[in-house]
Amino acid sequence: MPGMRPQPMICVVDVERAGRWYRQVLGATSGHGGPEYERLLVDGHLIMQLHRLEVGHHHGALADPDRPVGNGVALWFATAAFDAAVERVRAVGAHVVTDVHVNPNAGHREIWLRDLDGYLVVIAES
């Protein structure tokens, strides 16, 4: 395990609904659960966090609810089980932005989609 790991947190309107979507699409499990905050795990490792948009907890608001979320952000996930991930994307009926293709720069397959809140999600073959 590297000395530093990313643990992105995004603000969503409905944590429980978004958590179900991400668990299905990414093959993740819940590490917390609840209406205000969720930790998503793959193989026991935290891969991302979901936070309810208008809840400030101990740190104050994380986002302005009057502005669009995720502008300019791509949530990028690499997996060795790419074909299984694509099957999960299709089973959920996710909004696919760019279907499976080979990234000419990286030389691997990718699928680009939008989550329930409009964030751009990329699943790439590792």
Automatic annotation (TrEMBL):
Domain called VOC: residue spans: 4-126
Entry-linked SUPFAM superfamilies: Glyoxalase/Bleomycin resistance protein/Dihydroxybiphenyl dioxygenase (SSF54593)
InterPro entries from the UniProt entry: Glyas_Bleomycin-R_OHBP_Dase, Glyas_Fos-R_dOase_dom, VOC_core
UniProt name for this protein: VOC domain-containing protein
Native source species: Actinoallomurus liliacearum
